[in-house]
Amino acid sequence: FGLLWYIIALVRGDLWHSDEDGWKPCVENLNSFVSAFLFSIETETTIGYGYRVITEQCPEGIILLLIQAILGSIVNAMMVGCMFVKISQPKNRAETLMFSHKAVISVRDNKLCLMFRVGDLRNSHIVEASIRAKLIRSQQTKEGEFIPLNQTDINIGFDTGDDRLFLVSPLIISHEINEKSPFWELSQAQMDKEEFEIVVILEGMVEATGMTCQARSSYLDKEVLWGYRFTPVLSLENGFYEVDYNSFHD
């Protein structure tokens, strides 16, 4: 842009007639390429020292001023946006949230439960982490209406607050199969014949930026194992708990 301002002054003859009385240059006090470059910087950064100013006798300069102002604002917005996205990276943060490859159904505290494991690979915590689950399967109502891909909530601690997580170590999320559970009327043999999908959604805010991130996973009917438990991943070593992520999916 400094070169364009210099070309305008060169074509109009401002560089040679600027000292003449009554001559109206395109940009006052612009007499070299360096001064044109400085005027371009003042325009781009909206500094406006006041020594070099554009005049109304230069329509081509007014058009160039508008183009530089608009383009400069776009470039600044893009640079700020790129830096903000680079710093925040909410998608990359969600990629460090892990879900077990399989879900299991087994007895815990004398209650039949559906369980899966979640974990976080980073040291920084997810703030206000919460988790919810949906059962997706086709259903036929008592009136004979067929509903494909019907969604049913799976209670994983909404009434007790267990759905709000403090994810400092891998956690096993449990859903009690009781009278209110959508799995209450399904036996092991019936579940092997059912076609369904369990969608799990983990949400929270990134500690460093405060931006919300969301991680999702799902378990098909073939990925729900009956009569299994997860292998423990926490071990006490020299007074500290260590996590073995090699056994996370076992």
TrEMBL record:
<keyword id="KW-0851">Voltage-gated channel</keyword>
<dbReference type="InterPro" id="IPR014756">
    <property type="entry name" value="Ig_E-set"/>
</dbReference>
<dbReference type="GO" id="GO:0007399">
    <property type="term" value="P:nervous system development"/>
</dbReference>
<dbReference type="InterPro" id="IPR040445">
    <property type="entry name" value="Kir_TM"/>
</dbReference>
<dbReference type="GO" id="GO:0005886">
    <property type="term" value="C:plasma membrane"/>
</dbReference>
<keyword id="KW-0406">Ion transport</keyword>
<dbReference type="Pfam" id="PF01007">
    <property type="entry name" value="IRK"/>
</dbReference>
<dbReference type="InterPro" id="IPR013518">
    <property type="entry name" value="K_chnl_inward-rec_Kir_cyto"/>
</dbReference>
<keyword id="KW-0472">Membrane</keyword>
<keyword id="KW-0813">Transport</keyword>
<protein>
    <recommendedName>
        <fullName>G protein-activated inward rectifier potassium channel 1</fullName>
    </recommendedName>
</protein>
<feature type="domain" description="Potassium channel inwardly rectifying transmembrane">
    <location>
        <begin position="1"/>
        <end position="90"/>
    </location>
</feature>
<dbReference type="GO" id="GO:0015467">
    <property type="term" value="F:G-protein activated inward rectifier potassium channel activity"/>
</dbReference>
<dbReference type="InterPro" id="IPR016449">
    <property type="entry name" value="K_chnl_inward-rec_Kir"/>
</dbReference>
<dbReference type="InterPro" id="IPR003274">
    <property type="entry name" value="K_chnl_inward-rec_Kir3.1"/>
</dbReference>
<feature type="domain" description="Inward rectifier potassium channel C-terminal">
    <location>
        <begin position="97"/>
        <end position="249"/>
    </location>
</feature>
<dbReference type="GO" id="GO:0034702">
    <property type="term" value="C:monoatomic ion channel complex"/>
</dbReference>
<keyword id="KW-0407">Ion channel</keyword>
<dbReference type="Pfam" id="PF17655">
    <property type="entry name" value="IRK_C"/>
</dbReference>
<comment type="similarity">
    <text>Belongs to the inward rectifier-type potassium channel (TC 1.A.2.1) family. KCNJ3 subfamily.</text>
</comment>
<dbReference type="GO" id="GO:0034765">
    <property type="term" value="P:regulation of monoatomic ion transmembrane transport"/>
</dbReference>
<dbReference type="InterPro" id="IPR041647">
    <property type="entry name" value="IRK_C"/>
</dbReference>
<keyword id="KW-1133">Transmembrane helix</keyword>
<keyword id="KW-0633">Potassium transport</keyword>
<dbReference type="GO" id="GO:1990573">
    <property type="term" value="P:potassium ion import across plasma membrane"/>
</dbReference>
<keyword id="KW-0630">Potassium</keyword>
<keyword id="KW-0812">Transmembrane</keyword>
